[in-house]
Known about the structure:
The complex is a heterodimer. Chain A is mainly alpha-helical. Chain A is built from 23 helices and eight strands. A three-stranded mixed β-sheet of chain A has the order 1-3-2. In chain A, strands 6-7-8 form a three-stranded mixed β-sheet, with helices on one face. Chain A has a two-stranded antiparallel sheet with strand order 4-5. Chain A is globular, with a radius of gyration of 26 Å. Chain B has 14 helices and 14 strands. Chains A and B meet through helix 2, strand 1, helix 3, helix 4 and helix 8 of A and strand 1, helix 1, strand 3, strand 4 and strand 5 of B. Strand 5 of chain A pairs antiparallel with strand 4 (90-92) of chain B, so a sheet runs across the interface.
Amino acid sequence: MSLSSDKPATKLLFEDADWDFPTLSRVYDAIEKVALEDLKLDVYPNQIEVISSEQMLDAYSAHGMPLMYQHWSFGKIFAREETMYRKGYSALAYEIVINANPCISFLMEENTTTMQALVTAHAAFGHNHFFKNNYLFRQWTDAEGILDYLNFAKLYIAKCEESYGHEAVEEILDSAHALMDQGVFRYKRPPRLSREAQTERVRKRLEYEAERFSDLWRTLPKSEGRADDRSGGDDDWEEEARMPGLPEENILYFLEKVSPTLRPWQREILRIVRNIAQYFYPQKQTKVMNEGCATFVHHYIMHALFEQGLINEGSLLEFLHSHTSVVFQPGFDDPRYSGINPYALGFAMMTDIRRICTEPTDEDRDWFPDLAGSQDWRGALKEAWANFRDESFIQQYLSPKVIRDFRFFALHDEENEPVYRVSAIHNEQGYRDVRDALATQYDLGQIEPNIQVVAADLKGDRTLRLKHLPNRGRPLHEGMKIQVLRHVERLWGYNVELATEAAPAPEDE
Amino acid sequence: MSTHHFIDRRLNPKGKSLANRQRFLRRARAQIKDAVQKSLKDRNVSDVGKEHQISIDSKGTREPRFVHSQSGGTREHVVPGNSDFVPGDEIRKPRSGQGGGGKQASQSGEGEDDFQFTLSEDEILDIFFDDLELPNLVKTQLKEIKTFAWRRAGFTVAGSPTNLNLVRTMRNSYGRRLALKRPSADEIAELKARLFALEAKHDPSEADREEIVRVVAELEELERKRKWIPYLDPLDVRYNAFQASPVATSQAVMFCLMDVSGSMGEREKDLAKRFFMLLHLFLKRRYEKVSIVFIRHTHEAQEVDEETFFYSRQSGGTIVSTALEEMLKIWHDRYATEEWNVYVAQASDGYTQSGDAAHCVDLLQAKIMPLCQYYAYIEILDEREMEVFADEETGAELWRAYRLVHKRWPNFATKRIARPQDIFPVFHELFSKESAER
């Protein structure tokens, strides 16, 4: 301290590209000050972990989670990512952040100090605020319990592998993974993961099963009370309503409860897979918002640090360089084009909300009478972050200016026509159409096929009937459909039929 | 205000995904094997063990999901970057599914027909040599033992501290202490307590004084006893004993005979060397104890070391039988005993001095084949010859002669190589498990 007083007074947090932990800590404190006092963000406590690139690859392969059960598909992702990375085709992410309490962020050790600052602002405050406040995450995921639950899942599946063999467990996991997208409740709120209670319940059941196991049971005549005396201990689902109300959109849930052939541990594995699917469901619906929020926050904070004289021009330029490449949106005819960049769209819309609040134009006053000129952009953004998902956010907030900036246009694609028709562009007549179409494009209900269980003939030949409700005549991918149905049959144990609801298009094979 | 922690995880164990990777490799085993065989075709033999990128058909590792098909139905795409379109414009649809919308381009599980990843050296070699073996490896015996396995062999009174058997030692100690009636710490403590109580008395009576004297004497006696009956005596100590016991091993020797005469051009020599390199790699990896003898010949043969065999240049006339004779000599000198499994791999362009082929056949029939486990003859041809000699029965002098041997001895194999890409398949055929069973 006495040494530093000799130097000319500098407020800079760092000048070096190499970081150390005291520097990271100082940077964190400065960022936190801006985030909490200026932006008034509301975050979970942070736990920031510095990892190496190899560990980043490890984390990649298991949905970015620090804990995960073992399955070959994660090895497949790992093999591909590793090759891509080592060949230099793709860079690794700078960070991974986990929706948990405390919120865990992984930073790569290779990052420079500026990048660590950027990433801390992005993940530890941007994403963190979004996780804690967005209604989807609040209602549908359990940030408190997820790590405990994953730990339970990992141990449980390892134990199953020990007891029943790798192949048997792998089969069930393969089949469950195939139905992961159909393993979530979309409208009904799922029950909370009850961690210890859950573990305890399962442990007891397994022990009970093991104690009571006797090969003799199989030879006994079936007792009268139970039509289906499988392995003694599974009274749990016997007592639960045998048949959830039909139709049921959560196919995994239905199979877990009703499948006539699954054994208790297999049901538990289905439950694990669908709980994990449910946990990731909000993330699928908020890619644009989540990344937009984090990008807006890091952009604001880095500029605030610069204005306070805490980082120098060099750092600011380094930051801008990586920021602009993150929010780069090539046009559709650019060879680099690969869809709409969620960082770009989210960041542009959020920056635009700020502009509408502070410097509205007449057009904004027409389109957003409540926001325009309100000056309280922090409040406006926080409300948007809390109460919307991608689809509704775009429907509510996509302004003509952003449409013009991106030069969005809508293409109409009719099955039997050889051409796309341009149906709307960025002009007065087109804004609303483009906005509607773009919002629909982010509606998971439109992206994922709608397939439901409609009937299960438990008393007869036990055929399970599924129904596909096509959206605007869009058929299912035929090859995939056949493969997935094979998985459903494995879990159900009997014949499975998938019908497509009568539609004008003749896609029903 | 809110608490935060930086945690340095860089030193945490890496390779968390290793188990998943192995599961994946196991899952895709068949496809990976195919791919490895295919990719090895165009590789230099000396590169065989190098890390390698392969791409496999995604069959078997597909992860199907219910997804919409790429086309069909009515849809609306919103895309950025409009430069000159106005409503009503029409854009021709691309022929295949790679839509202008691009929106569905990355549905998981789609578009992965070629899955690319990198295999490490060990993984490659394991896969390539997976179902190969030396045929007829039978003469397993116990003489000339080179390997031992350590086995438990009871307990000893001497040994190194790491082998101390604590349970045994303490059991002996306890038994000895019981037998010799070593006073326990409790007994002494009790006596001391009594002495203390007696000495604490204000005015001890006569009886008390006597008692004190008696107790002190008793204490001394106990202490003395404790001293000469130690808690742990060297006599008690026991060590786990281990004995080296011989393990039955098979001894095998591989004779590599290579023709380096003038008729073998650079190309032929190169092919032969590649074949032997592969053989060498295979033996080193799978049969640690196999001896390898390198013999090269022109019109005369000599035993050489590995380095010379693979890298030196030499030329001259051709007498194949010299190599066989040299081999027999070495065989008698060093590998004469019944315990050796003898293998021979010979590479030649099939030309030898006229009349020599018959001599070779005599040597083979009379001396070599009866004692040899497996003899592999590889003839190196140029591509034109390969077409001329498409039939197994036609060929140069040596080839025709060797076909006779082949008919009589099922463990005599003949193969032809004309191009570098033949090497791997031929090698595979010669040493695959099925051919070994024949």
